[in-house]
């Protein structure tokens, strides 16, 4: 038996290492605590599902038993992508749900993404589950909740296929990295009228081919090769639980999510003129002008899928997106992040063009870095960021945005340093109009970080 540890209760989800910080016993406790939280909000049913990880069956079983012990009914969707659990909370008469998923983490990880009474919970709502477990006397409800299974596949696929339409036939390559999206992606896009070349769509929790995380270029090399070797026009890639989208052009260019957002924003704003479009602090500085040019109001916000979802609800915005690949459509959809759905919407836009890659490659861009990570000891990331906020100076800047870390804007680029909410890391990203400007901005960040922590091992 693993002893329950507060360290697995992260900012946006619960995540641990199997048999070290997470096992069936812990899953049972989390289920019971979540069930009590659901009942406190008047919720009587909870939807659950799991991804393709090897530890999924035992965790999902224990989670269900924990939920039932609190007195709530469980609707088990079985092996599904994370967005299919979110979909279930919108269509099955149950507004709460838990997905058993390790997302894009290594094979020995697993965890839980949660929706409570229609809200994606984060921060204190998640640590509150730990407090609830600690304070609970171990008793169960006098009448345990019921357990039922439900196959949501056809309803989910049909909901998308019935609404999202391509303008012409297209051949695409799809790389699921052996994550759970592989069980659905081929059927979805074929159902829309696409011809599909499938890469690593067999669900395998060992992830034998490459890591299921399209945010990193090394994980997209097989897809790039498939586009070179076949007559597929465009490539889609998904993370381990199917809530994030990667996109590759015919000529092997990676179209990062902040540039995907330009096309999504223009499309959504054609039906919602003047609407606010949300994006996180890691996104390109070209996105705000593109949103304005398309008739919308850009709104930069904190990073974190749960935070963006909550802000979307608060503002009534029809679209939000993160650099990490979480895209949230409230326009024609439900406002949750869904990589499979985002892929469908992207194909709807791209098939209006004879040369989709030309459209994508023409989107504005600068020299930029991917996410860079400064690895630190537990808690040290917050200490270093506090020092930077207090002391750091950035000569030549136009403005410093502090909604999430420090985003320093210059006339010719930006630099970002923010503390990760899930690991002891400072996340950085840089963008500039020229390589020389990029080097100058990185140099400024290097000197202020080394002033705050002289032994820091910087990733640039």
TrEMBL record:
A Pfam family that the UniProt record links to this protein: PGM_PMM_III
Top-level taxonomic group: Bacteria
Ranges where the Alpha-D-phosphohexomutase alpha/beta/alpha domain occurs: 7-134, 155-252, 257-365
Isomerase found in the keyword field: yes
Keywords: Isomerase, Magnesium, Metal-binding, Phosphoprotein
Residue span(s) of domain Alpha-D-phosphohexomutase C-terminal: 386-445
InterPro entries xrefs: A-D-PHexomutase_a/b/a-I, A-D-PHexomutase_a/b/a-I/II/III, A-D-PHexomutase_a/b/a-II, A-D-PHexomutase_a/b/a-III, A-D-PHexomutase_C, A-D-PHexomutase_C_sf, A-D-PHexomutase_CS, Alpha-D-phosphohexomutase_SF
Protein family (similarity comment): Belongs to the phosphohexose mutase family.
Protein name: Phosphomannomutase/phosphoglucomutase
